Amino acid sequence: MKLVITLSLLLISLEVQCHQLPGHNDDQASQGDKTLLEHPHLSSEEQRQDSSSYLKIGPSNSDFAFTFYRNIASGVGSRNIFFSPISISAAFALLTLGAKSETQSQIHKGLAFNLSVTEENEIHKGFRHLIHALHRPDNKAQVKMGNALFIEQSLKFLPKFLEDVKTFYEAEGFLTNFTIPRAAKRQINDYVQNKTQGKIAHALEDLDPSTILVLVNYIFFKAYWQHPFDTHMIREKDFFVDANTTVKASLMYRKGYYKYLHDEDLSCWVVEIPYKGDATSFFILPDEGKLEHVEGALVKESLSKWIASFKTE
């Protein structure tokens, strides 16, 4: 259960990320995604550079997503995992705008970026393009991702840093009095609740009065299945969490044509269920007893292989 829930969201992010598949090149992307590339505040040359950078950061973001998943999956037991890797990457990439030397290098390494392959400026331009792509008003899948910095009011930040986080990451900055934790916590929680349309009401439970900076990242995702499930077909059935645990769960049913395959190397079944718009989800069902094998062997190349091998029935 853990793997299926996590990867459905993880692969939505990777689908938007558009990491390069065999035969995919920058020219094809720039010609086939003209709407996605339009940015009202950038020149044509800046848009072209952002588009190229967007494709260059894809492999690193994908590597980070799968590595991060494996790291946290190894320590949670049978609990579910639900996260957005692209949100984590964007939030920490933002911090490198204000970091230097060893700190900056460690963040880049943690995010799987190699500066000999992708220059720092390309990383930020790539994320700017990605965030703009996610926020397209014509996208039928509603995705809203953002970052905010809550800064201790007694500190002085370079104006260039605040300008850059706004330019590249659409991030907002707020002065906060952390010496009054209750008021600071309310300020941050109210902000997150507003940005997530009330879905997250208590992002922070406690706040240390010695805090000098809080980095907030939020993501809101709402989409409709391309082929909706009939609510009258929902049935309560047994769901097998693991070999020793069975729970009752509401299961959806629908007859239709979906892309699917069995990955012999990973020992799992994969089915793609598309949303309206540009988003899609991949659900992975490990063969009996093969959950840990799938978790350990899953890499970004797995996605490329699935897309090339899918059959529809």
From TrEMBL:
Signal peptide, first to last residue: 1-18
Record-linked Pfam families: Serpin (PF00079)
Domain Serpin: 66-313
Keywords, in A-Z order: Glycoprotein, Protease inhibitor, Serine protease inhibitor, Signal
GO molecular function, one term: serine-type endopeptidase inhibitor activity
GO cellular component terms, semicolon-separated: extracellular space
Similarity section: Belongs to the serpin family.
Name listed for the protein in its UniProt record: SERPIN domain-containing protein
The species this protein was found in: Podarcis lilfordi (Lilford's wall lizard)
Lineage, opening ranks: Eukaryota, Metazoa, Chordata, Craniata, Vertebrata
